[in-house]
């Protein structure tokens, strides 16, 4: 790749990048191909060599309104000039108050308190801390464990890692710094399949045996994202809520990936009609324009936290409630409240169902699944992300496979024609992998 091409007078030194700049989950010894982006508009990224790519990832599932949206840009520009940042200790401001009001209005009735966190992982840490402090305030300090399910993903910080899939490689690496939690089997029945309540036998037994140590059950509602892009049955979630009530443990829902329309409902918990005691939000909260997350909880949880020996909730990062981030979130949520996302997501869903269906017959495709604005081809073997990435770039799209999954989660604003380009690229690449003569080129360690 040409490392010195310039577009819009922007030179990106990709050689320096490869030598000095760490990217997520990469080695500094063996840098993977990295593409320089100079701008993005609508659903298109422009590379430094002028190539335009249709984004199938919404930049890790966050940019639901697309890039450079005039409403979000204008709101942020205005706020930057007025108040970019101020400490949140002892000070508040309109963007934080307005955002909190919107979140309380949009989420279920039980969720009345908002803690603004910096990122999704931190929102999960905050949720876990709230649960532990809650039980201290309820004179039950032994309740310190989190019960979760396998194949989950909740972030990269230590407490968040402790609830990620135990076989996913995060646990072994960091030894005893990763707290031991309780893992039940992941939900089995798919979103559309028949549900058998027997599925919850194992989690129910674990709750029965250990509820005196369990502070909360933590789960991604309806869709397990980075742990495998698995969509599970809504009745699993409603039965789980009942078990939490029965055994007196809190339910923490991690809606960081699913929140704000991605699965076809505003929040994925609405598929099951359940309420969380604690809810984690992130990613699309700001439309993906700047990092911000939120942990919401009920009056009851907030009261328990306040009754704990500390008397206060023990968390408070420097950039808490950053006004610029809150402003981006308000603009993004105003766009969500205009409701266009509903028709957008449902037409994305039906188009993906139609266009991806044939891939189920490809030799190396084991499953095709679609829910809301998430479309997945599950392949037989682990994929070589770098090699496939280049193929996708050659086809004019930005799709980043991981593990054995080729998936898209496009911005809701994508046009039908652009979506066809994404699904066609997915099929073209998946089909090629299916050809035995090409297998060694594209399937490797991952
Ligand atoms: N929870 C879920 C369900 C996620 O999908 C992610 C990110 N993929 C996180 C938590 C962590 O969020 P962040 O990367 O913003 O820390």
UniProtKB/TrEMBL annotation:
The keyword Protein biosynthesis does not apply. Its EC number is 2.6.1.62. The record marks 25 as: Participates in the substrate recognition with KAPA and in a stacking interaction with the adenine ring of SAM. GO terms for cellular component: cytoplasm. It comes from the Bacteria. Pfam families: Aminotran_3 (PF00202). It catalyses: (8S)-8-amino-7-oxononanoate + S-adenosyl-L-methionine = S-adenosyl-4-methylsulfanyl-2-oxobutanoate + (7R,8S)-7,8-diammoniononanoate. Keywords: Aminotransferase, Biotin biosynthesis, Cytoplasm, Pyridoxal phosphate, S-adenosyl-L-methionine, Transferase. It is found in: Cytoplasm. The modification N6-(pyridoxal phosphate)lysine is found at residue 283. Signal peptide: none annotated. Pathway: Cofactor biosynthesis; biotin biosynthesis; 7,8-diaminononanoate from 8-amino-7-oxononanoate (SAM route): step 1/1. Pyridoxal 5'-phosphate binds at residues 120-121, 254, 317-318. CDD domains: OAT_like. InterPro entries: Aminotrans_3 (IPR005814), Aminotrans_3_PPA_site (IPR049704), BioA (IPR005815), PyrdxlP-dep_Trfase (IPR015424), PyrdxlP-dep_Trfase_major (IPR015421), PyrdxlP-dep_Trfase_small (IPR015422). GO terms for biological process: biotin biosynthetic process. Gene3D superfamilies: Aspartate Aminotransferase, domain 1, Type I PLP-dependent aspartate aminotransferase-like (Major domain). Substrate binds at residues 60, 153, 283, 316, 400. Its cofactor is pyridoxal 5'-phosphate. GO terms for molecular function: adenosylmethionine-8-amino-7-oxononanoate transaminase activity; pyridoxal phosphate binding. Homodimer. Belongs to the class-III pyridoxal-phosphate-dependent aminotransferase family. BioA subfamily. Catalyzes the transfer of the alpha-amino group from S-adenosyl-L-methionine (SAM) to 7-keto-8-aminopelargonic acid (KAPA) to form 7,8-diaminopelargonic acid (DAPA). It is the only aminotransferase known to utilize SAM as an amino donor. NCBIfam families: bioA, PRK05964.1, PRK07986.1. This is Adenosylmethionine-8-amino-7-oxononanoate aminotransferase. It comes from Shewanella piezotolerans (strain WP3 / JCM 13877). The lineage of its organism: Bacteria, Pseudomonadati, Pseudomonadota, Gammaproteobacteria, Alteromonadales. The gene is bioA.
């Amino acid at each position: 790749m040409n490392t010195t091409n310039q577009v819009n007078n922007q030179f990106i030194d990709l050689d320096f990048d490869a030598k000095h700049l760490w990217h997520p989950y990469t080695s500094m010894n063996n840098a993977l191909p990295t593409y320089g982006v100079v701008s993005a508009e609508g659903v298109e990224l422009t590379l430094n060599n002028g190539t335009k790519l249709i984004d199938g990832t919404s930049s890790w599932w966050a940019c639901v309104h697309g890039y450079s949206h005039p409403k979000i840009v204008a709101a942020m520009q205005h706020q930057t000039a007025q108040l970019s940042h101020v400490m949140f200790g002892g000070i508040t401001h309109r963007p934080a108050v307005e955002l909190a009001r919107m979140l309380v209005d949009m989420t279920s009735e039980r969720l009345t308190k908002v803690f603004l966190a910096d990122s999704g992982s931190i929102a999960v840490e905050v949720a876990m801390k709230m649960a532990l402090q809650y039980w201290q305030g309820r004179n039950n300090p032994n309740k310190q464990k989190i019960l979760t399910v396998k194949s989950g993903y909740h972030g990269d910080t230590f407490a968040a890692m402790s609830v990620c899939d135990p076989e996913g490689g995060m646990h072994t690496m960091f030894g005893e710094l990763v707290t031991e939690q309780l893992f039940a089997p992941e939900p089995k029945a798919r979103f559309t399949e028949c549900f058998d309540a027997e599925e919850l036998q194992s989690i129910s037994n674990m709750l029965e045996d250990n509820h005196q140590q369990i502070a909360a059950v933590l789960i991604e509602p309806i869709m397990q994202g980075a742990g495998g892009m698995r969509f599970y049955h809504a009745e699993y979630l409603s039965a789980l809520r009942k078990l939490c009530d029965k055994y007196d443990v809190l339910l923490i829902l991690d809606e960081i990936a699913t929140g704000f329309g991605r699965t076809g409902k505003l929040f994925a918990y609405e598929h099951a009609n359940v309420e969380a005691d604690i809810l984690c939000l992130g990613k699309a909260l700001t439309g993906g324009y700047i990092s911000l997350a939120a942990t919401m909880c009920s009056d009851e949880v907030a009261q328990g936290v306040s009754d704990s020996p500390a008397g206060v909730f023990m968390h408070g990062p420097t950039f808490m409630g950053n006004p610029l981030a809150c402003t981006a979130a308000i603009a993004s949520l105003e766009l969500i409240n205009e409701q266009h996302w509903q028709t957008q997501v449902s037409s994305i869903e039906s188009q993906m169902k139609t266009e991806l269906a044939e891939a189920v017959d490809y030799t190396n495709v084991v499953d095709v699944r679609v829910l809301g604005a998430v479309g997945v081809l599950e392949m037989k073997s682990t994929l070589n992300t770098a090699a496939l990435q280049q193929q996708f770039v050659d086809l004019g799209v930005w799709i980043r496979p991981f593990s054995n999954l080729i998936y898209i989660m496009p911005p809701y604003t994508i046009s039908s024609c652009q979506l066809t380009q994404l699904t066609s690229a997915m099929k073209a690449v998946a089909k090629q992998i299916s050809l035995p003569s090409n297998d060694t080129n594209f399937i490797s360690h991952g």
